[in-house]
């Protein structure tokens, strides 16, 4: 057996079972461990928030408010300190980190990261912050499968192949929705359907879902069972305006999250470890504001805090009025954005379903509350079943708009309801929302988060496929690592430094003493400086061309060709002299060749 395929498994196992058989056996182990871990993670959050809520409700209104302000803030502070000092990978949902590990690090995730993710995710969401558990479950499950893969295999392909197995097992156990787990991995991670990858994932998903159902019950985590079928009716046309609204609100949600996240990172006066605490305090204020506006202080069906499935189930059962639905939609939207953008540890699955459910309920109840829509339009049925259908349609449409996994958004609603009869309006609304969000922003939220962190996406299949690469932003192909020169340096000293560090390029960005971009100098100019004593003299009076990360590849290429330039600095849209990266015509040509090849 060669070095590539040797494992650390016992000799008897290597001799008795083939490589493929060992892989499937380990998928069984991964499914069991990930299922068990997902259930414990779920119960930790559930019981921690239940305890917090019970303590808060046992106090007078002042104590109630104090508890629900301090608990999310304390959780944010703990997460901020831990992320800043020990484990930066434990911030956010964990899905972007899982994708980066799969494509850029061969599927390797440290087991230590999984432990930190479990602890910080349980504390952050369990103490009331308005994020979800599914994303962190994916990350810690991927860490488990990666650790097992590195223990069992030396073959890099086998190690990498273990990661989607854990990812699927984690989703299956978190949602108790095995089919959705498979489609999500294919849509979000693998970006294509592969029978080769399916076998091990199915094994792990079956085991993980069995563990979850044994310990938590047969129903999905969010109970929305429908006893009877929906019959095709005119009210189902509500899926069309719901799809449009979800597409627009989903796009707004993504942009707000990314922009506020960038704002937190650019504010040097707010320490990074303190930002999640600020997010937790904001969540407490928004949650209490929702109670105050609706006049339902302490009602768990009117809660922005934590995961909020009780509010979603109340909307499904037609127990929330239009005003309450509108307040919950707005406050949850703001709370999720600020929690995630400030660096909290939690996911976006549950919040996305919550927002979609509130939107669907708002439109459904709002239409039902009207006595009539006109003489030629029948009144919208004020029926619990119909309102529940609107809630489900909104959940699917918002999931498709934010997470950008249209098939998963269809199947997950089917698995939650155990009913197929809503499939037609669900398909119409989901596809409409997905297309609108995709048109407004070509890069999905998880990929955009990676780009914001300076992680290259060149290896991801979404950026090597047959799509029109010219519409993608330059941040998908630019180089985040640059070799800057400084305006005070002399040309001779600069050339010596370039040779010593072996950084021979056609051109270089030039920074001033404050680290701000002042120009671009070519290697030819450095070799023939004339009378210039320093680089500032070489670039004096230069008409500098820059682009921002969101600029399309096509626009950047056109500007470079018009100016006869082979490279251009990429700068912050808020600070035009802050260098973020470097784009060359070679980068553009390489992407074109990959797509057309």
Q: At the fourth CATH level, what is the homologous superfamily of the largest domain? A: Clc chloride channel
Radius of gyration: 26 Å
The total count of helices amounts to: 23
Q: Going across the major beta sheet, what is the strand order?
A: 1-2-3
CATH class of the largest domain: Mainly Alpha
Q: What is the CATH architecture term of the largest domain?
A: Orthogonal Bundle
Shape: globular
The level of helicity is: 55-70%
In round numbers, the mean pLDDT is 86
What is the SS-derived class? mainly alpha
Helix-strand sequence = HHHHHHHHHHHHHHHHHHEHEEHHHEEH
- N- and C-termini, Cα separation: 35 Å
Question: Number of folding domains?
Answer: 3
Low-confidence stretches: 1-6
Reported for the largest beta sheet, the result is: 3 strands, mixed
Give the strand content.
under 5%
The CATH topology of the largest domain is given as: Clc chloride channel
Q: What's the count of strands?
A: 5
């Amino acid at each position: 057996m060669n070095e590539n395929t040797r494992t650390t498994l016992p000799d008897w196992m290597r001799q008795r079972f083939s490589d493929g058989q060992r892989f499937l056996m380990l998928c069984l182990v991964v499914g069991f461990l990930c299922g068990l871990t997902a259930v414990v993670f779920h119960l930790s959050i559930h019981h921690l928030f239940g305890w917090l809520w019970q303590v808060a409700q046992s106090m007078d209104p002042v104590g109630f408010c104090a508890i629900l302000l301090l608990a999310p803030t304390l959780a944010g502070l703990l997460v901020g300190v831990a992320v800043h000092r020990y484990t930066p990978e434990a911030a956010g949902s964990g899905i972007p980190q899982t994708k980066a590990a799969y494509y850029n690090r061969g599927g390797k995730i440290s087991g230590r990261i999984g432990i930190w993710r479990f602890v910080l995710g349980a504390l952050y969401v369990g103490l009331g912050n308005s994020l979800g558990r599914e994303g962190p479950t994916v990350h810690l499950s991927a860490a488990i499968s990666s650790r097992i893969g590195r223990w069992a295999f030396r073959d890099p392909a086998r190690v990498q192949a273990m990661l989607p197995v854990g990812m699927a097992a984690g989703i299956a156990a978190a949602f108790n929705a095995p089919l959705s787990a498979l489609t999500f991995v294919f849509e979000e991670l693998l970006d294509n359907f592969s029978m080769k990858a399916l076998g091990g994932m199915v094994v792990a998903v079956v085991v993980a879902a069995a563990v979850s159902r044994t310990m938590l019950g047969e129903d999905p985590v969010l109970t929305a069972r429908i006893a009877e079928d929906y019959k095709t009716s005119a009210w189902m046309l509500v899926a069309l305006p719901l799809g449009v609204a979800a597409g627009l609100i989903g796009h707004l949600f993504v942009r707000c999250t990314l922009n506020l996240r960038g704002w937190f990172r650019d504010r040097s006066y707010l320490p990074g470890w303190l930002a999640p605490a600020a997010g937790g305090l904001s969540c407490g204020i928004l949650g209490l504001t929702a109670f105050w506006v609706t006049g339902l202080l302490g009602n768990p069906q009117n809660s922005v805090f934590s995961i909020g499935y009780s509010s979603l189930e109340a909307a499904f059962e037609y127990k929330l009025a239009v005003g309450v639905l509108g307040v919950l939609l707005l406050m949850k939207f703001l709370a999720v954005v600020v929690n995630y953008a400030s660096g909290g540890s939690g996911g976006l699955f549950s919040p996305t379903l919550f927002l979609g459910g509130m939107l669907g309920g708002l439109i459904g109840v709002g239409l039902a509350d009207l006595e009539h829509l006109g003489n030629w339009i029948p009144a919208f049925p004020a029926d619990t079943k119909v309102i529940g259908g609107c809630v489900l349609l909104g959940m699917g449409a918002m999931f498709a708009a934010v997470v950008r996994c249209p098939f998963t958004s269809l199947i997950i609603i089917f698995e939650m309801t155990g009913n197929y009869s809503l499939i037609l309006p669900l398909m119409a609304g989901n596809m409409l929302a997905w297309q609108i969000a995709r048109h407004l922003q070509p890069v999905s939220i998880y990929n955009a988060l990676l780009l914001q962190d300076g992680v290259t996406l060149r290896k991801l299949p979404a950026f090597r496929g047959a799509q029109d690469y010219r519409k993608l932003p330059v941040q998908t192909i630019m180089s985040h690592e640059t070799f800057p020169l400084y305006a005070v340096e002399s040309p001779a000293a600069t050339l010596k430094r370039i040779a010593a560090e072996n950084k021979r390029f056609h051109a270089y960005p030039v920074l001033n003493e404050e680290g701000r971009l002042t120009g671009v100098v070519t290697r030819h100019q450095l070799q023939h400086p004339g009378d210039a004593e320093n680089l500032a003299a070489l670039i004096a009076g230069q008409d500098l061309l820059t682009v921002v990360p969101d600029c399309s590849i096509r626009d950047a290429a056109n500007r470079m060709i018009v100016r006869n330039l082979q490279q251009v600095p990429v700068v912050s849209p808020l600070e035009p002299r802050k260098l973020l990266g470097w784009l060359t015509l070679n980068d553009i040509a390489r992407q074109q060749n990959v797509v057309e090849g």
